[in-house]
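seq:
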Amino acid sequence: MTPFIRPMRISSPLSSLSSTFTRYRTSSPLPFRSISTLPGHPHIQIHPHPTIPDTHLLTLLPAKPAIPILALGTTSSLPPTINSFTPNQTFLSILHSVISEHCTSDPSTQQSVTAFVSSSTHSLFQHNRRAAPTGGWVHISDERNPPDWGRIPDPEDIFGSVEVDAKGNIREGSYQPCLGYRIWTRNGIMQLSPYLREKLVEKLKDEERKIQIGSSRFASL
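struct:
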């Protein structure tokens, strides 16, 4: 039986964004020296924080100045380390909303569901050949630390879980985020599947455009 992982509710991650753009418009950005990327993770950009000295943002977006509310988090030193990194809770909410919306189409999640159904059916056949197959919960985990076959990922590596039926169909709206998930652990920083990362970047760019439009309207007043 899959151990219980305490879920969390998915709150509206972007309800306050429209009221925050003025801070980034009215503050004077610090001078930018260069844009770099996180070693081993070329898709993660490192930008100076636009308002806080000696602080940098880790973000999936290349635009500058970077928008803090859309970043993975901040680092107080370079190169960033697990000890210097502070996660952005708003980013986590956006991340979970994207996974909830797109996990059913994610090839990596589909593979996990197929493996779960196959394993469950085999185990059931061994113990009771007359029993009808049942569903259960499948964990969607970070790819930075893949568990051994048949093992459950550490809670800090589990994005969340989805409920599946006996045929391997994911129940719509069943995604439950894991409270124990961490963006950065001793095994490294977040690594999404290519499909989910693409969807996350699309969502972040969409929110970035909304903030920039709001900032332009504010400037014209």
